[in-house]
Amino acid sequence: MRIKKFCKIFAVTMLSALIFTGCGSSDSSSASSSASESSVAESSSADTKSSEKVTDVPTKAPTEAPTETPTPEADTPFSVHGALSVNGAYLVDKDGNKFQLKGMSTHGIAWFPKYVNLAAFKTLRDDWNTNCVRIAMYTDENMGYCNGGDKEYLKGLVKNGVKYATELGMYVIVDWHILHDKTPLKYKDEALAFFDEISKEFAGQDNILYEICNEPNSGPSWEDVKSYAEEVVPVIRANDPNCVVLVGSPTWSQDIHKAAADPLSFENVMYTLHFYAGTHKESLRKRAQQCIDGGLPVFISEFGICDASGNGKLDYDSAEAWKELIDKNNLSYMCWNLSNHSESSAVFVNGCEKLSGWAEEDLKDQGKWVREWFKSNPSL
C-alpha cells in the first residue's frame, strides 16, 4: 500500500509550496515477506519534517552562546559516560558498557530557532531526563542551508546548540537534514565544507555525533548514499578521528537492510532508522530486528507515534511495540519534534510560548507520552 503525505510550508516570499515529507508505508500482514519488504520500501513522501512555516527566517540568533566552548558540568551524562564508540551492533560508553542516547530532535532550526537555548536544553536534561539533543538543519526547502538560507546564521545556531549541550554535559547530534533534496549527492560539496568546518571547530569534543544525511528518498540507491558517505566521513575524521557518525539509507531511512548487505568500512558508524508508529508497524520492526541480529549498529535518530505525515492520530499500541524493541536492543532514540507547531508530532500545544520549564499542560499527547518514557529510564 502506498500512502501519500503532504505537508504545506509557506516560503519567505509568502508563496505556498507543497513539500513532500515522511517515511512510510502501512503494514500488510497478508503479504509475503518480499511483498512486505516492498511495501515498506514504497513508502510515500516524508516524515514530519517539512511543516507549515510559522515564522520568517530570523536575521540573528535569539540567544547568545559563549564565544568559547564551555567546560561541562560535573555529574552529567557526558561526565559519567565520556566518549562513545561502536562495538558490534551496540553503542558503548568509555568503559565499554552498552549505552542509550535518548532525547528530542529540534524542528527545522531556521523556522523554530527559539528552542535552541541553554534553558530549554537544561529542562530536557533535568526534568525530561534526556541525555542528548538533535539539531536539525534543513538543507533545501524553504530557505534551506543550500538553497538561499543564511549559511552563517544557520551555522551559528548549530554551533550555539553544540555549546549549550556541551556546557550541560549532554550529547548532541549535528543533523544535515536532507529531505526535499532527496539525494545527499545534490549538495555534496556544501556538506563537505559544512562538516569540515563544524568538526574542525569542535575537534577534541567527544560529545558530538554527526548525522550526515537525514532521509535519502525518492530515487537514490544505497550505492549513492554509500559513495556520499565515503567522501564525507573522511572529512570529519580528519578533524575528529574517533567520533560516531550516523548514516541514513534510502526510503526515508528505512532501508537499513541494504546497508547491512553492503556496509561502510569505517569504524564507529551507525545506520539510522526512522519510524512513525501510526504508519510503520510489524514489517519494519521485523526488518530492524533482523538487521540488529545480523550485527548492524542501528540508531533511531527520529521517530514519532503519529502517522508518517507527522500528524494524525497517535497509535499507542504500535508505539509500545516500538518501545519494546528499542529497549530490548538498547537502541538510542530521538523524538521528533521540539516545537509548538500545529501537527501532532510537535510536543508543545499551539499556544505555548514557553522556551523552557514546560509544565504538563504545555504538552500535547505525544509530548506527555515521550516525556513519561524518558523519565522512566535511568537518568544517566
What is this entry, summarized?
This protein is an alpha/beta fold.
Task: Please characterize this protein's 3D structure.
This protein has 380 residues and is α/β, with parallel strands linked by helices. It has a single domain (58-376), classed as Glycosidases (TIM Barrel, Alpha-Beta Barrel), CATH 3.20.20. It has eleven helices and twelve strands. The chain has helices at 33-41, 77-81, 118-126, 151-167, 188-201, 222-239, 250-253, 256-261, 282-293, 316-328, 365-376, and strands at residues 6-10, 16-20, 85-87, 90-92, 102-106, 132-138, 171-177, 208-211, 244-247, 269-276, 298-304, 333-338. The longest helix is centred in the middle third of the chain and has 18 residues, at 222-239. The termini are far apart. Residues 1-61 have low confidence and may be disordered.
SS-derived structural category: alpha/beta
- Biggest β-sheet description: 8 strands, parallel, barrel
Average of pLDDT: 86
Order of helices and strands: EEHHEEEHEHEHEHEHHEHEHEH
For the record, the CATH architecture stands as: Alpha-Beta Barrel
CATH homologous superfamily placement = Glycosidases
Number of strands: 12
Rg, please?
Answer: 19 Å
CATH topology descriptor: TIM Barrel
Our measurement of the CA-to-CA distance between the termini, rounded to an integer number of angstroms, reads 41 Å
Q: Strand content of the residues, in percent?
A: 15-25%
Total domains, how many? 1
Name the shape in a single word.
globular
